Amino acid sequence: MSQSRRHRPSRLRGRAAGIVLAGGSGTRVGAGINKAFLPLAGRSIASWGLNTLGSVDGVGLLVFVVRPDDLEHARFVASRESAHHLEIITGGDTRQESELLALRHLADRIDHGVIDTVLIHDAARPLVSHGLAAAVLHAAREAGGAVPGIPAEGVAPVDGPDALATGAFSPDSLLRVQTPQGFDAATILDAYEQAARDGFVGTDTASCAEEYTDIPVTWVRGEETNFKITYAQDLLLAQDVVTALGLRSV
């Protein structure tokens, strides 16, 4: 693994960019549209995360990555539901392609030091808190990379289809990783470009960073309410959380 050639240390800190990915569908939720645009307490699911990231001190711009078919929905979010200016772009066929396209969209500003850090978030996690997003940004700037996670209790790795793995396994070492995931912008851009050349496909942003950089990736404690909406019951649960906690989109 090699350190990014793009990165140039500077006394002047740039801004962070929030990248919100909305490339999913509504199939498993049972909806006819992308789940990111389903309503949650009067606003689209996507608008919650966008407004939260945009409210974090140090985040200077937001990139909203959507499918070509969802551009009209995205423009509605930008004009009616977002408290911040959105740069809307279309993504690729996979999550990783969409992330790469978002990073390329920012490449000139990354090269010139205008953007120093990126926070990459799933639109389907609407209830991420301001505090968690801010903590990930702070940790990413300190360490080079950071992810939120919750220790996975009652989970053990397997060694083949019929046996548990033995040896140095520690339950404390397993995390349920969430988003936003934060990284030094220049380093993660180079990592994604190299992954594209190699045809490498990771499970998330951190896996690509682990494969192609030597930056340390730290973790901050995530939140149980920062769950991903995948099924219809998840959307019902999100509505219950909003009601119980008196939450509102920033």
From TrEMBL:
Pfam families: IspD. InterPro entries: IspD/TarI, IspD/TarI_cytidylyltransf_bact, ISPD_synthase_CS, Nucleotide-diphossugar_trans. Keywords: Nucleotidyltransferase, Transferase. This is 2-C-methyl-D-erythritol 4-phosphate cytidylyltransferase. GO terms for molecular function: nucleotidyltransferase activity. The lineage of its organism: Bacteria, Bacillati, Actinomycetota, Actinomycetes, Micrococcales. It comes from Brachybacterium rhamnosum. Transmembrane segments: none annotated.
